[in-house]
Amino acid sequence: MGTLTFTATMSIDGYVNDAAGDFQWSGPRDDVFALHIERMKGVSVEVLGRRTYELMQYWQKHPDQGPEADLEFARRWRAIDKVVASSTLAADGLGSPRDRLVADLDLDELRRIVDDATGAVEIFGPTVAATAIRAGLVEDYHFFVVPMVVGGGTRALPDDVRLELRLAEHRIFGNGLAYLHYTTD
C-alpha cells in the first residue's frame, strides 16, 4: 500500500502560477532540481490532470543526451506509472504504455490507486489534488516556496480547507527558496 503525497512549487503568497498562467518564475535551480530527482526515488505512481500531463510529456520524450540531471529525471519519470485524470483527453493521446486515463477521478478510485501502489502516489497539480486534500487523503505535503509574491493565479491549496500539519523536513536554498515537507501524523 502506498501513501498519497502532494507536491507544489508556489510563490510565497501561495500560487502555483500567476494571474496570466505563467509559472516560469518557479523553474528550479540545479540544487533544487537535484532534490526533485532524489524525491522521485520513492514515487511509484503520478496522478495528474491533462494540462500537467501534456506539459510533463517533455520528460517522456526527452532526448537521451544532455545534462546528467535532466537525463536522470527523465529516466525516473519514465519509470513511474501515470494516471491522467481527464474527461477530454483520448486514450490514444497517452505517451506511454505505463500511462492510464481515468475520465472521472473520484475518491474511491484514488484510494484504489494508493492501495495498489508500491510506493508514494504523488498527486500533482492543485486542481486534481483539491478533492483529495479536502477529504484528508493526502498524508505528505512537499512545498517548494519561491521567494516571490505574484498577487494572484491558481492557488496551491484549496481555500476551503483547514489542515494541521507537522513539519518533517525543511531546507533553505541559496536563492531563498524554501523546501517544506509536512505530514498529517
Short structural summary:
This protein is of the alpha/beta class and 185 residues long. The chain has five helices and eight strands, in the order E-H-E-H-H-E-E-H-E-H-E-E-E.
Features:
8 strands; 185 residues; 27% strand; alpha/beta; 29% helix; Dihydrofolate Reductase, subunit A
Q: Would you kindly provide a written description of the structure presented here, covering whatever features stand out?
A:
The protein is of the alpha/beta class and 185 residues long. It has one domain: 3-Layer(aba) Sandwich (Dihydrofolate Reductase, subunit A), CATH 3.40.430.10. It contains 5 helices and 8 strands; from the N terminus they run E-H-E-H-H-E-E-H-E-H-E-E-E. It has an 8-stranded mixed beta sheet. The model has no long low-confidence stretch (mean pLDDT 92).
**Named CATH topology:** Dihydrofolate Reductase, subunit A
The shape, in one word, is: globular
The percentage helix is: 25-40%
| CATH hierarchy: architecture | 3-Layer(aba) Sandwich
CATH superfamily: Dihydrofolate Reductase, subunit A
- Sketch the major β-sheet: 8 strands, mixed
DSSP strand count: 8
Helix-strand blueprint:
Blueprint: E1 3-11, H1 30-39, E2 43-49, H2 50-61, H3 68-79, E3 81-85, E4 99-102, H4 107-116, E5 120-124, H5 126-134, E6 140-146, E7 166-172, E8 178-183
Parallel strand pairs: 1-5, 1-6, 2-3, 2-5, 3-4
Antiparallel strand pairs: 6-8, 7-8
